[in-house]
Structure formats: C-alpha cells, structure tokens
Amino acid sequence: MNVVEAKGFRIPIVGLGTWALRGRECARLVEQAIRLGYRHIDTAQMYDNEREVGEGVRASGKRNEVTVTTKVQPTLLAPRDLERSVKESLAQLQLDVIDLLLVHWPNPRVPLSETLGAMAKMKHEGYANQIGVSNFTVALIEEANKVSSEPLVCNQIEYHPFLDQDKVIAACRQHGMAVIAYSPIARGSAKGDKLLERIGKAHGKTAAQVCLRWLTQQGIAVIPRTSKVERLEENLANLEFELSDAEMNEIAGLARRGGRIVDWSWSPQWD
Ligand SMILES: NC(=O)c1ccc[n+]([C@@H]2O[C@H](COP(=O)([O-])OP(=O)(O)OC[C@H]3O[C@@H](n4cnc5c(N)ncnc54)[C@H](OP(=O)(O)O)[C@@H]3O)[C@@H](O)[C@H]2O)c1
Question: Hey, which of 21, 135, 195, 214 has its CA 20 to 30 A from 70?
Fold first, then answer.
C-alpha cells in the first residue's frame, strides 16, 4: 500500500470514509474494505458509528495493520471535555488505541493552545498514537504549529478537482503536515463530469478513479466513502494507473468559485 509520510508517520494513501454509514452495513463495509487492502479507516464522534467501525476493524483480523482515525467534535474542545470524549471514543471503538486523533473543526471559543495541550496529553497517556487537525485554514495551521508541543501530522480538508486548495496545501507542506482529502470524489459528482469521463475513457478507468488518482498523484491521501462493495475495489484501484502532466493540469482547471460542498455555516464561527 502506498503511504504519505509526515513527521515519521506513514498514512496509507487510500482510506475508507464512513460518514453516513451506519449499523451492520458500516461494520460489514469496514471489514470488507480491509480484506480488499484498505489500511486506513476514517470515522468521527459526530458520525455516530465508532462502535461499528471498531467492530469491522476487529472482525477483519488485521487490526495491527490498520490506521484508525477519529475526531473530536468542535463543541468538546475544552480540555476536560476533550479528554472525556476521547476516552468515550476509545470505549466505543473498543480498540487498544486511536491511531490518529484529529480536532474535527476549529472552535474560536476555546483557545487553540488549550485544545492542542489536551490532544498532546491524550497522546502522552497512550489514548492516541498521533494527533492532527481538520478544516484548519492557513492562519490556523500557522498558530497550531506554533503552540502544539507534539507534532501535528495532518490537516484533513475538503479537496477534489472542483475546489482550489493550493494555499492550505502549501501551508501544510511548509509545516511537514500530510494533507488528507475528504469528499475526494465530490460526494459522487466526479461521475458524470465530462472531462473526468473523457480522461478515464482514454485509460480504461472511471471518472471517480481519475478524480482520486489526480489527488493521490499529488501525494494527497484520500478517504472516499462508498456503501457498495464493488466501489471499494474501484476506488482503491485508482493507484493502478498514471495521469500525464497535461491531464493533471487539465483537471486542475476544473476548480471553480463555489466548488466547496461541505457547508461550514453550522460550525462555531469567528466574530
Ligand atoms: N473532516 C471533515 O470535516 C469531513 C467532512 C466530510 C467528510 N469527511 C470524511 O471524508 C469521507 C468522504 O467524504 P464524503 O463522504 O463527504 O464524500 P465522497 O467520498 O467524496 O463521496 C461519497 C459519495 O460518492 C459515491 N461514490 C463512492 N464511490 C463512487 C464511485 N466509484 N463512483 C461514483 N460514485 C461513488 C457514494 O455513493 P455510494 O455509497 O452509492 O457508492 C457517496 O454518495 C467521509 O465519509 C468522512 O469520513 C470528513
């Protein structure tokens, strides 16, 4: 499995996203994904499926080979809340440790130094192996790296060809952080895009595979979600071909204003 390296931590380049997967279906897909070769599973407290994700990981019999990511929700970033909620996550997952623990969204009402202090404590106390962030802007990446006593290995952000994330990616790279792309097939809308379909046809691949390959070829880790077993294989197989420089540039041209899919307006806002 290809990996993205950050500060000595190796993140498998293709993982399974699990937002909206629930119950037995979730556990079954996680187990199946690992059997097919996935080595990174992404969940969060907010997805309400940590129990099933843990079940699927344990059932695969390959727990030691798999990176399990979970995230602390923005309303629980004050140190005492964070510590309690991480312990709850681990109890839900029923795993030995959280491999990668992320701050799900920043919360301007809690000083970042306090949140990251608590995240570091969780690492020191053996609840998490590595820590990182998600949905951090350039300014927050700068601040986080200044105040964190522990290395922050990644920033998980929305990224796909329809959204320009060059500035945030440059800031992550400057600080040696891996970028993990969420909604990497634009919630399924890569399928049906004329350019991605055309390039896919030339390679005997689907538009979703071209979309994912465009990301992985840039050294970006991806966590596509699917509820269909056959698509687990399809999405993993994005690693089996190469896009030309010309194709990479053409796809980059799809970025547009308003290309963001995930709405930030629900999350705690800066004044
Ligand atoms: N950190 C954050 O704030 C944050 C925010 C959003 C998401 N995430 C994480 O990122 C993961 C992925 O993002 P996402 O779930 O928003 O969107 P996504 O992975 O871009 O898209 C998922 C959608 O695409 C469809 N799909 C999957 N494979 C396909 C294929 N090969 N061809 C055509 N359609 C395909 C799926 O439908 P089927 O089920 O029918 O295949 C599903 O409707 C999430 O599950 C979650 O783990 C994190």
Answer: 214
Q: Token pair of 231, please?
A: 């698509």
Residue whose pair of structure tokens reads 């119950």 in the numeric block? 23
| Nearest alpha-carbon partner for 11 in 41, 34, 33 | 41
Nearest-CA residue for ligand 1 atom 5 is 182
Q: Residues 70-112: pLDDT tens digits?
A: 999 999 999 999 999 999 999 999 999 999 999 999 999 999 9
State pLDDT tens for residues 141-150. Answer: 999 999 999 9
Going from the Cα of 162 to the center of ligand 1, the distance in angstroms, rounded, reads: 15
Please report the pLDDT score of residue 89 as a whole number.
Answer: 98
Residues having CB within 6 Å of any atom of ligand 1? 17-19, 42, 104, 134-135, 156, 182-188, 191, 206, 208, 223-228, 231, 234-235, 262
Burial class (CB in 10 A: 0-12, 13-18, 19+), 146: exposed
Encoded tokens for 14: 């293709």
**98-103 and 128-134: which strand pairing?**
parallel
Query: Best of 19, 42, 216, 220 to mutate for ligand 1, by most ligand atoms within 8 A of CB?
Result: 19
270 pLDDT exceeds 90?
Answer: no
User: Whole-angstrom Cα distance, residue 213 to residue 256?
Assistant: 19
H or E, element range at 129: strand 128-134
